[in-house]
Design brief:
Order of helices and strands: HEHEHEHEHHEEHEH
Strand order of the largest sheet: 3-4-6
Oligomer: single chain
Structural class: alpha/beta
CATH architecture: 3-Layer(aba) Sandwich
Helix content: 40-55%
Number of helices: 8
Strand content: 5-15%
Number of domains: 1
Largest sheet: 3 strands, parallel
Distance between the termini: 26 Å
CATH superfamily: HAD superfamily/HAD-like
Shape: globular
CATH class: Alpha Beta
Low-confidence stretches: 180-184
Length: 199
Amino acid sequence: MRLLPGAAAGLAELKNAGFELIVVSNQSAVARGLATPEDVSAIEDKIVALLAKKGVAIDSWYYCFHHPSAKLEKWRAICDCRKPAPGMLLRAAKERGIDLERSFLVGNMWSDILAANRAGVRAVMLATTPEKTALEASSYADEAEAWAIAETLYEAAKLIVEAEKRSVSRGTPPEVSPTVPAGQEARDRNQNRKRQATK
């Protein structure tokens, strides 16, 4: 396991700007019997160790193990935590006293972006896994709105920090208007990336 280039530096930028770092992750592999909660915890521990070497710490982790058609009955449910539902974000905000209006979510799936929209959080799409986003329900991309699209986590962090600086310096509310529509144009961009990757 390794960190993507610029990931730790991007997280450090956000931390230094005063943001809390919260992970909200669908882990349906548990519901499908492909992994256990202990396996997920072991992966978390490895990520924590890798980030610690870079001087970065995640503040909290939230997981959803559910899936509507789970192999394991324990996790078979239509829940309010599996993204694109906003449950994990709302829970984190309540438990940690987070102002969602001043928060951002960075994700690589349209279900991430839609969860952010539903929670009232600005969302940055990482254009790093077009092969995964291409398999998502088109309704997610049609409904979701990304505040921005970034190539890397470091680029996303710089966009977020600069937006926050502008908001503070102007004494204005957070920039809430999305800069990038998440409809056909964005899906075409990801489809093009997938075609280029397979050439």
